[in-house]
Amino acid sequence: MIAENNDIDKPVDDEIFGCINPLNLKSFFLFAGAGSGKTGTLVNVLKKFNKEYGEDFRLRNKKIAIITYTNAAADEINHRLDFDSIFAISTIHSFCWELIKNFTTDIKNWLSVDLNDSIVELDEKISKARDPSNKTAISNQRKRESKIKRLDSLCTISKFVYNPNGDNITKASLNHSEVIALASYFIASKDLFKQLLINKFPIVLIDESQDTKKDLIEALFALQVQNKTKFSLGLFGDTMQRIYSDGKEKLGEDLPEDWLKPVKSMNHRSELRIIELNNKIRKEIDGQIQLARVENTGGLVRFFIVPRDTNKLKNEESIKQKMSFLTNDNKWIDKSIAHTKSDITVKILTLEHHMAATRMGFDNFFNPLYSVDKLKSGMLEGSSSSINFFTNIILPLFLAQTSNNKFEIANITKRHSPLFDKKNIINESNQLKVMLLSKTNIDNLLKLWKNNTSPSLIEILKEIHKTKIISIPPDLRIALERSSLSGNDLDEEDDKVLLAWDSALKANFDEIIRYQEYISENSPFGTHQGVKGLEFERVMVIIDDVEARGNTFSYDKLFGTKALTKNDNDNISVGKETGIDKTSRLFYVACSRAKKSLAIVAYTDEPEILKEKLIELSWFEDEEIEILQPINE
């Protein structure tokens, strides 16, 4: 599985360049497995396009849209293309907002229908409430009032606003899910909108397309079918790396016959042994094979089996010691504090974020919220206005106070305090009054951290609510009101989001600090899902279905130590996706992050059986599998 030379994928660049010839547009799906260098291909093709067709595009005011998965990826591609104006490079949310932002009347009509539907649904819940004074009923009533208020305010909005990287809580703001839903709906249903999109962006290229929202992908597919000669849709992806449920299943299959389907065969990231493992994991799924670069002949993989009844942190430290010895690499046991991603010596990948939260000490805040499906993506993408209230406003205030930076405290206050609205600052006398009042209120808030104490999140909200120094997001306002109600008189229909906040707000603020360190990817911890697109010299993958507490993934079933259910077998018989398929993809994503050495740590109740099953699976050699004695002290 070593390539004959390192240039075997160069013809792929030419194939893709041919697809975006403005005189003969074609659509394509580029299969690009882990470490295949798809960003390099994208940049090479676009530089060549700029040289041959860039001037014509500029004269005709046309652009190529490049949709990336993260802001970091967008920044990297922008930098490598010298920020040329014919390339509109952005995340999916920014791209959708750019498309819809001038359609104010259409947005109002869509929101009117959506809000009315939500109000009808809430009316039904309120009418069925057994006790109109309990927390559930009051929460539903407050949500209904909020939606009616928003519905009534639509007529006063002259233009909507949206920040793809922050909070959207003003009356003219759209939230993240609304922006995607609106763009998908407009592309699918409005002829004028379709024409404007094609005229401005005759070429749309989507990276990590397997995890792009299904509704949007399907709308773009339909647009391409209707405009084959005028619109090129280029998808870069790997269905084996689809890890979110809202992506389109089997994206690379059943494509139109006139689509090109180039394949990149080389893995530039990992050494040979790790690539061999990756190929074996996906062999039964799609049989795609990758080759190693000529010089990448090494690599080390070990599978450590550990009884569940053990001190996990100490066992994991012991495994690092073993990996250091096996690889002759002291970086496995380097305890230096990482300040940036590049400082991380060993990346530890847990199956679920709450496993990392427990290890890092922010589980009281994180776990209740992460247990609610509709909150998960917002927690991980930074698109939750309630969480951002603490991470983007309160945390910077705390850090500015810690460093005695009074200038920064004043700046943050001016940006976020309603006291500084124009209506409150009419003349110099008012200005002085507002400034003095805001200083007093912020000083009182910051006193909560006096003598190195860490206040609870609910204490912080109560202090802010008392002075109104900062606007509190809607969910937190409701949660704050709920905290003052006596008793726990909930009913089975109580909103899961608000129940989660009831619990999370009891956490101390120091958990916000640890959460932000984790979510910013500056900690040694990550998840099997969250590191997609990243790479590390040394990787430890932690597997424990019991600690993960989920039912979406099952490594016990994947490795054969737990029997398949009737539902599993029924799904397999009709070709429907199963939890085993999802787990295989997740395992592939996690293992393929490693460049040189990979340690897999599996906690189990049946160590000997797991080893037997692994040998039967033939992904690992016998000498690569080791059963460890538990460390309990």
Helix/strand/pairing class, anyone?
alpha/beta
Shape: globular
The main β sheet shows up as: 6 strands, parallel
The number of helical elements comes to: 26
Contiguous runs where pLDDT drops below 50 for at least 5 residues: none
What is the end-to-end distance?
44 Å
Strand content: 5-15%
Radius of gyration: 27 Å
Name the strands of the widest sheet in spatial order.
3-2-4-5-1-6
Mean pLDDT: 87
Q: How many beta-strand segments?
A: 14
Query: How much helical structure, as a percent, in the residues?
Result: 40-55%
Provide structural commentary.
The chain is α/β, with parallel strands linked by helices and about 625 residues long. It is built from 26 helices and 14 strands. The protein has helices at about 10-20, 40-60, 70-80, 90-100, 105-125, 135-155, 175-190, 190-200, 215-225, 270-285, 310-325, 355-360, 365-370, 375-380, 385-400, 405-415, 430-445, 455-465, 475-485, 495-505, 510-520, 545-550, 555-560, 565-575, 580-590, 605-615; strands at about 30, 65-70, 85-90, 205, 230-235, 265, 265, 290, 300-305, 345-350, 525, 535-545, 595-605, 625. The strands form three sheets. A six-stranded parallel β-sheet has the order 3-2-4-5-1-6, with helices on both faces. Strands 11-10-12-13-9-14 form a six-stranded parallel β-sheet, sandwiched between helices. It has a two-stranded parallel ribbon with strand order 7-8. Strand 7 (about 265), helix 10 (about 270-285) and strand 8 (about 290) form a beta-alpha-beta unit. Helix 6 (about 135-155) packs antiparallel against helix 19 (about 475-485), helix 18 (about 455-465) packs across helix 19 and helix 19 packs across helix 20 (about 495-505).
